[in-house]
Amino acid sequence: MGDDTKAQRLLKAFNRLHRSEWNRMPLANCKGNEIRVLFYIKRGCAQDKRGVTISALSSMMEVTSPTVTPLIKGLESSGLVLRYNDQEDRRVVRVQLTESGEEVTQKAMKNFESRFTGLFDFLGEEKSDQLADLLEQVHQYKEMMLKAEQEK
């Protein structure tokens, strides 16, 4: 970045936030990505009481099924999810939260809400709105750069 101190400041701020592992919330010996999967399973089960399919789950998460499967297997071995074949189509695998999985998901949601309520209280309404606006603009910039890269 050469002598561009403003760009260096941005980079430093992004790196500090990344290193702080703000998005990590270890709970019940689960990693952040496992908690994320539990949230998606809960959302999928709200749409279909039979459980969410692996393909629907991977679609919601915008990843491939082979990425989701090991996470589901780990959560299953921890007793947080139940994985089973669909009654109507045995080729389809469905997943539901167990009672323990539901408890962990609820605790994680409370933890998540507490973090952002705390941040809002710390920043105040005006700065929280500014931060949300800026993060939306960062996302727009990232999408614009990705699109430009794909068009090359």
Automatic annotation (TrEMBL):
One Gene Ontology MF term: DNA binding
Which controlled-vocabulary keywords does the entry list? DNA-binding
One Gene Ontology BP term is:
response to stress
Q: Which SMART domains match?
A: HTH_MARR
Which residues are in the HTH marR-type domain? 1-140
Q: Does the keyword Ribonucleoprotein apply?
A: no
Which superkingdom heads the taxonomic lineage of this protein's source? Bacteria
Protein name in UniProt:
MarR family transcriptional regulator
The species this protein belongs to is Paenibacillus anaericanus
